[in-house]
Amino acid sequence: MTSIKVNLGEREYAVHIGKGLLGDADKFFNLKRKVFILTDSGVPCEYAKAVAKLCESSVIYTVNEGEGSKSISALENVLKAMMSFEMSRKDALVCVGGGVVGDLGGFAASVYMRGIEFYNVPTTLLAAVDSSVGGKTAVNLGNTKNIVGAFYQPRGVIIDTDTLKTLPKRHISAGIAEAIKMSLTSDKALFEFFEKNDFSEDSYEKIITEAVKIKKAVVEKDEKESGLRKILNFGHTLGHGIEADGGLSELYHGECVALGMLPVCSDAVRERLIPILKKASLPTEYKKNIDSALTYIVHDKKATCDGIDTVIVNEIGNAEIRKIGFSDFSMLVKKIFS
Ligand code: GLY
To answer: Is the shortest distance between the CB of 223 and ligand 1 below 6 Å?
Structure first.
């Protein structure tokens, strides 16, 4: 097992990574109180039950699988269920699932009685390498992703690598996309590891550990994304546009990020990136008309009237943030996808 501490003063917490940790959740989380366990219909129910078994008093609340559950109405239902369970400010919420459950549950925890403690148990590779750490919580409003939310740190995170065994291969690839993103912006050695190795099950623990180390370092320096943390949005501007255009029924978030990285890196970086994306079974071509995806970008949080805060990788392991006008951004994108 590896434990990584995220040092944020009074909001510090540990991320524990290893096999079979779910059955020991009570060693890492304070479950001696009312515990509201949030999961979704796509997550094997035994994971939430394994946590419930360790609690004195708990309920398991299951939302529908998918981005549709990151909505104000789903949030309202979760909060009503928490209220029916008569939770006090001293009780806790545990998110067992992927990014949707973590984002929705974390945000519910942040607003219920002005904030109760919550823990993350990510069961997808994508949530393990990125969203479960760092305290970004949110729901969507219409087609605009994550526009209603809060920075609200979990009290602890358990990543049980055994839970990844039940994940379909496409979900694994989507998670690998976020880890590739982090290597490009921050860790040349990890990128070279991806070049030299296959994405086998044996590599998941290393990939998660290295990604969480990168995330921790960034979040410790810039918790509320006033500067450096923006580099974690590499590939996400176009990625969110593609996601909004097609809906997640067509491409998963990680697949959209994979495509979104291609126009915002140098030719030399792209030449090395494409073989890795292909090895991870991630898309490198966009089959639809990209103009439609571009129309969603004006609504992105990274876009202001002066342009879009764009993360560019010209050299592996180094990212820069540049404000680019919408038409220049479109030109970069169309050079790659036309
Ligand atoms: N997923 C990007 C961040 O946490 O800042």
So the answer is: no
